[in-house]
Amino acid sequence: MKNRSILALIAVAGLSACATQGGSSMAPFSQAGLPDAVQVPAGHNVAMQTMASGDITYQCRVKKDMAGQFEWVFVGPDAGLNDRRGKRVGKYYGPPATWESLDGSRVSGAQVAVAPAGAGRIPLQLVKANPAMGMGAMQGVSYIQRVNTQGGVAPASPCDVATLDQKQTVKYTADYIFWRAL
Description:
Layout: H1 2-16, E1 20-21, E2 24-25, E3 44-62, E4 70-82, E5 88-93, E6 98-101, E7 106-115, E8 124-129, E9 141-151, E10 167-181
Antiparallel strand pairs: 1-2, 3-4, 3-10, 4-5, 5-6, 6-7, 7-8, 8-9, 9-10
């Protein structure tokens, strides 16, 4: 048990290093420029900051309750999570949306809100985290924000009867900010 606790502390220290770059402290993450809908409630502090780079898969499906109409539907993400120095610290995948640390701890969550991020960008997002599974860096995470998004929107190619059930993958990047209650 003692070794497990030491390993968990090492993992937390490693992921907490996401807030430093080249040995100097980064400015604390500020929600000041974010829409109210995706701001984390008062009483929480940033636990870690990660940069994600990966893919989002979409599938061409019939629109719900709209026979003869089609749309690209979000299937799931597959991205690596890196600290601010570019070192791999985990991964993000789904469904369900899951953020997993290299120490094996992981957290899933439910979307609370989204806000537009601009043309060609997936929306900003606020997720309420479920209790973490496993010992490590994801323990105590209460909220996850997706900010600074690039790409990731549904394909521009036609989704119709000829492409029904086909999948397409698009590239995206985003920052995921992990929060813990004070």
